[in-house]
Write a structure and sequence with these properties.
CATH architecture of the largest domain: 3-Layer(aba) Sandwich
CATH topology of the largest domain: Rossmann fold
Radius of gyration: 24 Å
CATH class of the largest domain: Alpha Beta
Largest sheet: 6 strands, mixed
Shape: globular
Number of strands: 20
Strand content: 15-25%
Number of helices: 17
Strand order of the largest sheet: 6-7-8-3-9-10
Helix content: 25-40%
Number of domains: 2
Length: 494
């Protein structure tokens, strides 16, 4: 029997005061897709860093590649052994071209650009991608950047490919194309370690599944041995009987309304929509449909060029974030790392950032700031040793809670959530969903933008569907079904 491409034996990692990994053991075979699952903080990232040579494991840990024990552990050594990782946020050179990114780092004194262009084209063809070799990477869509990363790894003769949340930022169509590529690479004999919180993808694509929890190895399972409820239970260590807890709340008066709202710069056109007190209004649509653009208009980031925004029945002018906050509108954006939290700031300063003027912005306000931040951290169950630790040290789910705390501290009546559970584990998702239900019961009006249809179908009282910057239709909870939403969202819908 052939040796596995990668075998991990007794992998442990200890940091001062923290046991990040405990005795992890599994292997990856040629032509296999092996899913690695676990909640945020389970140890997946640490394990990936060990496999790629970035982090040194504890003594007694053993890594084998093609049956040989790895004695010199470093990123260069692991790369030379055919191990490559593609992360959710691409590690490309944005100002260089596609061709330059594909061939960068090659050895050799003499550079034959014609030969490199030919090799780059062959690489792209191998993975079924058609990219302009001269295009700067900054001009590419996220899906194209993912393909470029994978092509670069294959060009470096990677036989073990680690894909870390590869579809988290992709549209449904782009995600499907990437999964097709994963299947093609498996057929070519590449071993793929696949990390994702999207369990439907895992159950579709994986041959085996390894689950981590709290740094420990829960088990490795053949796909036929598990289903979605079982995987959730294995990851969380508890039954999440209701991942999308439906909240029955009396729906109140209209608090936010748009009338023929347009923004030439963002392509949003003639949106007429209402949002009521205690309601969770889902906003669906394909990537590029205009959902985030609408949220930015409502929050004053991209002011409307025509139409009206009404709050409590009165037309209001919202041309800035300050005006939106004055009308008690809050917005938790999609990109948590870029716009949701400032990772280098501690938790308390992140939470109170919009309130500095109210808190006087001086050292005299520090006790108030700490008390307010501690209150929200406790209410939202932020898991951290202290509110004074840097936000970057938190898991994705806890960072999202900090981002949410920041805007809840402004005491909003209207809360816009843009992809609030993207890239976080099932346990953290359930906590965010329960929190949304609590906020609705308190009378907040919630606009929920999500690319996950189960999330919208499970939580929303109504679902509004956008297509190409326009409102394609609004469905009640009874009318809403996967097929009905997709029919409105697709280009060919009437």
């Amino acid at each position: 029997m052939a040796s596995p491409l990668l075998a991990l034996r007794h992998i442990s990692k200890t940091y001062p005061g923290v046991r990040a990994l405990r005795d992890i053991a599994f292997d990856l075979k040629a032509g296999e897709v092996h899913a690695l699952l676990g909640e945020n903080g389970a140890g997946k990232s640490t394990l990936i860093k060990i496999i790629t040579g970035v982090v040194e494991p504890d003594p007694g840990s053993e890594i084998q590649v093609n049956g040989q024990i790895v004695s010199h552990h470093s990123p260069r050594q692991m790369q030379s052994l055919g191990i490559a990782a593609v992360y959710q946020n691409p590690t490309l050179f944005n100002e260089l071209s596609v061709a330059e990114n594909l061939r960068i780092g090659e050895d050799g004194v003499f550079i034959s650009w014609s030969a490199r262009r030919k090799a780059a084209q062959e690489l792209l063809a191998r993975i079924g991608a058609t990219l302009d070799l001269d295009a700067p990477v900054r001009t590419l869509r996220m899906a194209e950047k993912q393909l470029l990363e994978i092509a670069r790894a294959i060009g470096r003769k990677a036989r073990v490919l680690i894909l870390d949340e590869p579809t988290a930022s992709l549209s449904h169509q782009d995600a499907e194309r990437l999964l097709d590529l994963v299947e093609a690479l498996r057929a070519q004999g590449v071993g793929i370690l696949y990390i994702s919180h999207r369990l439907e993808e895992v159950l579709r694509i994986a041959d085996r599944v390894t689950v981590l929890r709290d740094g420990g190895h829960v088990g490795t399972f053949e796909k036929r041995e598990v289903d979605r409820p079982r995987l959730i239970q294995l990851m969380a260590g508890r039954d999440l009987a209701e991942l999308f807890p439906k909240t029955t709340v009396p729906i109140g008066e209209v608090v936010l309304e748009t009338v023929d709202l347009c923004c030439a710069a963002s392509g949003v056109s003639r949106i007429s929509l209402s949002l009521r007190r205690g309601e969770i209004l889902g906003l669906a649509g394909l990537v590029g449909a205009g959902r985030t653009e609408l949220a930015r208009i409502l929050f004053g980031l991209t002011p409307a060029t025509s139409g009206q925004i009404r709050v409590d029945g009165q037309a209001v002018a919202i041309h800035s974030v300050g005006e939106a906050i004055a009308h008690r509108i809050a917005y938790v954006p999609e990109d948590r790392k870029e716009h949701g939290v400032i990772e280098d700031l501690p938790i308390n300063e992140n939470i109170t950032l919009p309130l500095l003027r109210r808190l006087n912005g001086s050292w005299l306000a520090e006790p108030k700031e700490d008390a307010l931040a501690a209150s929200f951290a406790q209410q939202l169950a932020v898991k951290a040793p202290s509110i004074h630790v840097q936000t970057r040290t938190l898991s994705g789910g806890n960072q999202q809670k900090v981002a949410l705390s920041r805007w809840l501290a402004t005491e909003p009546r209207i809360l816009i959530l843009d992809e609030p559970t993207q890239g976080i584990d099932v346990g953290a998702k359930a906590e965010i969903h329960r929190l949304m239900g609590q906020l609705a019961r308190q009378g907040l009006a919630i606009l929920l933008i999500s690319s996950e249809l189960p999330e919208l179908l499970g939580l929303a009282d109504r679902i509004a569907v956008m297509r190409r910057g326009r409102l394609a239709g609004v469905l009640s909870a009874k009318e809403a079904a996967r097929e009905a939403v997709l029919k409105l969202a697709m280009e060919e819908a009437v």
